[in-house]
Design a protein that fits this description.
mainly beta, 5-stranded antiparallel sheet, 35 strands, globular, binds 2-acetamido-2-deoxy-beta-D-glucopyranose, protein phosphatase regulator activity, WD repeat, WD40_repeat_dom_sf, PP2A_PR55_CS, repeat
Length: about 450
């Protein structure tokens, strides 16, 4: 892992985040597939296509280097998943990490869940700065000593050593998913979590790996009747009985586990009727929801589809209370986006700590922020040129046809191979992490 960049900043004029901020650009060993802060934001975990997890830790405040506060440095790197082969189905199982979720800290160690398409693992990440020395039956290199040479008994002692961070797999939750896992979510009871694939959602206890409960199953008896798949699922942040899942038809179902063991009948069903004037061949594809997130307050849910982000009030099922256009200029380009498969890209979305701002990605390494109170929005770009020391991220504008102003970029020159699918927002501060292929960018408010 190499590091570059020093300080750069989140843009100002007309932006929701109106402060300068230092930034950090880290080149990842492989394409980043997920990004997640822990509950205090001091740790940031990323997963990649090669099955690795890299954890970054925020630099502690130090009196002589106050400007270094906020820098995230590599804390631990480990291989979470390996490529496998399913001999029964003759299928390769990729090692790519689809999702990472942190567990709240309960002792000196950190715990996180990571998943690929089929298997969820619980990892323990702990520090070691002492090592035992002076065993009787083996020497310092671990070789057995000749018993005839042992003439006296020693008491082993602990000696300080360089800090070592170890990652150990504590539990492996396997063989419960026939389809690809798209989501994992830790319940607020901290005893259970769920894993969702295209057609089913399972509930697990952290202590039990050989058994899970199926809580949603939408698989039709005849697979030819399949019209809808599950795309994302999440537990309510405070009510351990409630969860939501979204579908490829643009709908969201809220389920209550108290009503029955199998939550096939939803408690609430959120759907916006389609505007008939906008109907096209692509309507169904672009209405598929790629991400669903509860607000920290638990009052709202946010969904991302191909062109928009929507905010729904849990108390209103027939339409979203807010709809934000992420890149409406692509509406006329859907045909070519279908041909190059981009229309199937799965963009995620995140809330800031106070639920007042939402962020999601787009193409050309652009990402968007929407301020829900002022209704202002901004487009920013994550690029190496932008992460020069103390640079300020300038808002970007895309122009559609007509005359292009000097600082604008034409919709025809957008690079569709550069996409921001995964982002994360620090739970209590204005620090964001943006994954752009194999670069990780961290932007933050300037310290003063
Ligand atoms: C997040 O990580 C930090 C940094 O090491 C740790 O101190 C904190 O307890 C963690 N927070 C939670 C809620 O797990
Ligand atoms: C799971 O493992 C435990 C302990 O080994 C065992 O008691 C239990 O019967 C197993 N459950 C199933 C469903 O296999
Ligand atoms: C219909 O399309 C227009 C732009 O062509 C867009 O502004 C509007 O939000 C769309 N309506 C819906 C319900 O998506
Ligand atoms: C986002 O939430 C954090 C935490 O509540 C808050 O400090 C910050 O000001 C919010 N950001 C914006 C731009 O409102």
């Amino acid at each position: 892992i190499t590091r570059s960049g020093g300080g750069s900043s989140l843009g100002c004029e007309g932006s929701v985040l109106c402060h300068a901020v230092p930034c950090r650009a880290v080149l990842h060993p492989d394409i980043i597939s997920t990004v997640e802060f822990n509950h205090t934001g001091e740790l940031l975990a990323t997963g990649d296509k090669g099955g690795r997890v890299v954890i970054f830790q925020r630099e502690q405040e130090s009196k002589n280097q106050p400007h270094r506060r906020g820098e995230y440095n590599v804390y631990s790197t480990f291989q979470s998943h390996e490529p496998e082969f399913d001999y029964l189905k003759s299928l390769e199982i990729e090692e790519k990490i689809n999702k990472i979720r942190w567990l709240p800290q309960q002792n000196a160690a950190y715990f996180l869940l990571s998943t690929n398409d089929k298997t969820v693992k619980l990892w323990k990440v702990s520090e070691r700065d002492k090592r035992p020395e002076g065993y009787n039956l083996k020497d310092e290199d671990g070789r057995l000593r000749d018993p005839s040479m042992i003439t006296m008994l020693r008491v082993p002692v602990l000696r300080p050593m360089d800090l070592m961070v170890e990652a150990t797999p504590r539990r492996v939750f396997a063989n419960a998913h026939t389809y690809h896992i798209n989501s994992i979510s830790v319940n607020s009871d901290y005893e259970t979590y769920m894993s969702a694939d295209d057609l089913r959602i399972n509930l697990w206890n952290f202590e039990i790996t050989n058994q899970s409960f199926n809580i949603v199953d939408i698989k039709p008896a005849n697979m030819e009747e399949l019209t809808e798949v599950i795309t994302a699922a999440e537990f309510h942040p405070h009510h351990c009985n409630t969860f939501v899942y979204s579908s490829s038809k643009g709908t969201i179902r809220l389920c209550d586990m108290r009503t029955s063991a199998l939550c096939d009948r939803h408690a609430k069903f959120f759907e916006e009727p389609e505007d008939p004037s906008n109907r096209s061949f692509f309507s169904e594809i672009i209405s598929s929801i790629s991400d669903v997130k509860f607000s920290h307050s638990g009052r709202y849910i946010m969904t991302r589809d191909y062109l928009t982000v929507k905010v729904w009030d849990l108390n209103m099922e027939n339409r979203p209370i807010e709809t934000y256009q992420v890149h409406d200029y692509l509406r006329s380009k859907l045909c070519s986006l279908y041909e190059n498969d981009c229309i199937f890209d799965k963009f995620e979305c995140v809330w800031n700590g106070s639920d007042s701002v939402i962020m999601t990605g787009s193409y050309n390494n652009f990402f968007r922020m929407f301020d829900r109170n002022t209704k202002r929005d901004v487009t920013l770009e994550a690029s190496r040129e932008n992460s020069k020391p103390r640079a300020i991220l300038k808002p970007r504008k895309v122009c559609v046809g007509g005359k292009r102003r000097k600082d604008e970029i034409s919709v025809d020159s957008l690079d569709f191979s550069k996409k921001i699918l995964h982002t994360a927002w620090h739970p209590s501060e204005n620090i964001i992490a943006v994954a752009a292929t194999n670069n990780l960018y961290i932007f933050q408010d300037k310290v003063n």
